[in-house]
Write a structure and sequence with these properties.
Microcompartment protein EutL, globular, 4-stranded antiparallel β-sheet, EutL, structural molecule activity, 6-stranded antiparallel β-sheet
Length: 217
């Protein structure tokens, strides 16, 4: 079954070429991190994925990443969305390069999938073939290892994670117990790239099955 892709949107971006010392202290930046890129997106998990991709393609670090409560439909303002991320680097050119990687990931590489026509029932079954510094730290794995990033609504996430773990030789490294800030759930699973892909496929198949017969047991 081919599911329609649901892409995130970058809502706002600002660069700080030379961050103030007071803000740098609050963000617990290293001394060599003088430049920042700040951005918001409409979907948080795509934002986290994009941050990780930026750490692989530019000399940047993800120094701040937060989801907003209740999701983009209940955002605090028109440019808030569901997520805020901050990249830090020694100079403005590097954070610009990091933002280009974020933009590429958000617009083309990472996406949710809809299991119904009005796109209100969605899932995230994204395989990262080689993790950067951000997701590897979050999952407690070595940089460069594969990862299955699996997210869905609460019941679907729990049932889907069980199926994903049974489908291949993968290990659940981080569990997002529902409700998350955005009322979803899921986890980060690691294994070989093929095992992560099999886990993601099993997760997706389960959500499709539940959407078709939600009360069947």
């Amino acid at each position: 079954m081919n599911l329609e892709r649901v892409h995130a949107e970058i809502l706002a971006v600002r660069l700080i070429p030379n961050v103030d010392h007071g803000l740098a202290r609050q963000l617990q930046l290293n001394q060599y991190h003088r430049s920042l890129a700040i951005f918001t997106t409409t979907i948080d998990d795509i934002g986290y994925t994009a941050l990780d991709e930026a750490t692989k393609r530019a000399d940047v670090e993800a120094v701040y990443a937060r989801s907003f409560y209740a999701g983009a439909d209940h955002a605090s303002g028109p440019l808030s969305g569901e997520f805020i991320g901050i990249l830090a680097a020694p100079n403005p050119d590097e954070v610009k390069s990091g933002m280009e990687a974020v933009k590429q990931t958000v617009e083309n590489d990472a996406f949710f999938e809809a299991v119904n026509q009005d796109k209100t029932h969605v899932l995230y079954a994204h395989v990262v073939s080689s993790t950067g510094s951000y997701l590897s730290k979050e999952a407690g794995i070595k940089m460069g290892e594969p990862l299955a990033y699996l997210i869905a609504p609460p019941l679907e996430a729990m049932y889907g994670l069980d199926a994903a773990l049974k489908a291949s030789d993968v290990e659940l490294k981080k569990f997002f117990g529902p409700p998350s800030e955005t009322n979803f759930g899921g986890g980060l699973l690691t294994g070989s790239q093929s095992a992560c892909q099999a886990a993601a496929d099993a997760f997706r198949d389960c959500i499709i099955e539940i959407a078709k017969q939600p009360i069947h047991y």
